[in-house]
Write the C-alpha cells for this entry.
Amino acid sequence: MKPTVSAGARDTGRFGPEAHDDARALIASIHRGGRTAMVQPYVRSVDERGETAVVVVDGEVHHGLRKGAVLRSEGVAPVRGGGFGAAEAMYDPDLVRAASVGEAERAFAVRVIDHVAGRFGAVPLYARVDLVAGPDGEPMLMELELVEPDLYPAEAPGCDDRLADAILARLDGGRPR
C-alpha cells in the first residue's frame, strides 16, 4: 500500500492477511493527507531479484537499472528525516544499480510506451517502466513513472545529453513521435 503520488517510499507499507488493521490505518493516514491510496500485489520476485527499471527517452530504451526491495518486512517502511524524508532503505547506496535490460523486458517496456502513445496521441518525452518477474517469469508492470521519475542519470552515462537532445528536438519543432 502506498500513496498514488509519492517519492522515497514515504507512507508505504507491506501487509499480510493478519495485518488488515495496520493496512487500514495506513490508508486512513494517506487519506487524511488528502491523497489517494493504491494497492499493489505482493510479488515474491521483488524480494528475490528486485525490480528492473527500464528508462525510455523519446520512445527509445536508454538504460536499465536493478532496484532492490525497499520494503524488507511487513509494516510501514521506517522513514529517515521526518515527513519530507525517505524510507530508510532509500539511503542504501546499493539499492539502485545500472543493469542490462533483457530482450523480454525491453520488448515489454516498448509495448507499454507504444500503448501510452496510442492512448494519448504522443510518445512521452521520458518514462521509467518498472518491471518485475511475474509468477510465470515473464515481465509484469509494477509502475509506469511518467511524472518526475528519477531516471538515475548517474547510473547511465549519456542520459543527460540524450534527454537534452530530445527536449531540444521538440522545442525546435520536432513533433512527439
